[in-house]
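Quick one:
INPUT:
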């Protein structure tokens, strides 16, 4: 039977991922104590959730891992903190954007599903229903908002402040790393630098009084998403996916991530849902169809709508003239999604 010391066990536990995240339980701060006496290993874990299925899965993974190393006797003590009690006891964190009423993250489990296009058009549609709206491009590695909104100038400094004025387009205040660095310059940054950049774009831009700030999140469920969820007072999230199962697998991870950090999921959007041939009007379901609607039912989250795969949406995005700013059937789709998102926000506000 293997006899490992506490340091060796801690190193092994770095292989155990927190369910739904790419980070391990050690870096998450879950492991609070390790005792190794001969063949007996005792662990103390502390979870900031009352969901025992999380701790059960972690305990199962720990025991399987240590068993592979020849450790048969593993005792796990798992404590769970009541999230509501934690909120009551936790001191108020700094509000990075105190003049913004609501912040909504538009996210996707994977890239290539049109998340940024949806985020930009959603922001414009929210503005067109009478709200004061901002759009922050939090996708530092692959910023798209500058191109989507046709932003080409550099932002101006705010008078008398060490901050920047946001750019403005189509009734939306916007900021993106795409207007701060050369478009052809790759950002070779580690996670902490990217997280810090997002904080600066929130803190050091004079957003003014906004009803809603839309965050165009990077794809995936990694450190950046976790940092934003922990440091920004998110009202809710919108998950973008395409209909095929490959994309829905990652959409489930995105939903699970926000649920684990207690950010309400305002709904699921199915992008590239179908293609209508412009000459015949025949509907082609290129990537299948209806997958997001079915997934929303399974996950018990709202289904916000289907966005077709059509030329004017792509052309508007490439030209810096989003379709939501036009009077077209596609614009009506985004308007309907915006109204559903805002209704979800108002419902969340009423329920406290």
């Amino acid at each position: 039977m293997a006899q490992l010391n506490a340091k060796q066990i801690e190193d092994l536990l770095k292989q155990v991922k927190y369910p739904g995240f790419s980070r391990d339980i050690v870096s998450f701060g879950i492991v609070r104590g390790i005792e190794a006496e001969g063949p007996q290993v005792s662990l103390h874990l502390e979870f900031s959730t009352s969901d025992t299925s999380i701790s059960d899965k972690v305990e199962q993974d720990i025991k399987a891992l240590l068993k592979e190393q020849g450790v048969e006797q593993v005792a796990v003590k798992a404590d769970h903190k009541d999230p509501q009690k934690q909120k009551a006891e936790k001191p108020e964190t700094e509000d990075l954007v105190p003049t913004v009423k609501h912040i909504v993250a538009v996210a996707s489990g994977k890239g290539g599903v049109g998340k940024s296009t949806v985020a930009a058009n959603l922001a414009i549609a929210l503005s067109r229903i009478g709200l004061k709206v901002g759009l922050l491009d939090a996708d530092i590695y692959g910023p798209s908002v500058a191109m989507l909104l046709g932003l080409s100038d550099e932002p101006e400094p705010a008078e008398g402040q060490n901050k920047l004025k946001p750019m403005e387009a189509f009734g939306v205040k916007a900021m993106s790393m795409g207007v701060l660095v050369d478009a052809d310059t790759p950002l070779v940054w580690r996670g902490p630098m990217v997280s810090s950049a997002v904080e600066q774009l929130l803190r050091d831009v004079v957003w003014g009084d906004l009803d809603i700030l839309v965050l165009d999140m990077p794809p995936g469920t990694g450190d950046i998403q976790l940092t934003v969820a922990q440091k920004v007072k998110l009202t809710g999230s919108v998950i973008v996916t395409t209909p095929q199962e490959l994309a829905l697998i990652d959409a489930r991870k995105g939903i699970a991530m926000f649920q684990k950090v207690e950010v309400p999921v305002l709904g699921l959007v199915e992008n590239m849902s179908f293609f209508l041939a412009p000459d015949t009007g025949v509907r082609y379901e290129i990537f299948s169809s209806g997958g997001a609607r079915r997934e929303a039912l399974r996950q018990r989250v709202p289904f916000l709508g289907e966005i077709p795969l059509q030329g004017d949406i792509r052309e508007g995005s490439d030209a810096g003239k989003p379709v939501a700013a036009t009077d077209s059937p596609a614009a009506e789709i985004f308007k309907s999604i915006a109204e559903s998102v805002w209704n979800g926000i108002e419902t969340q506000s009423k329920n406290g």
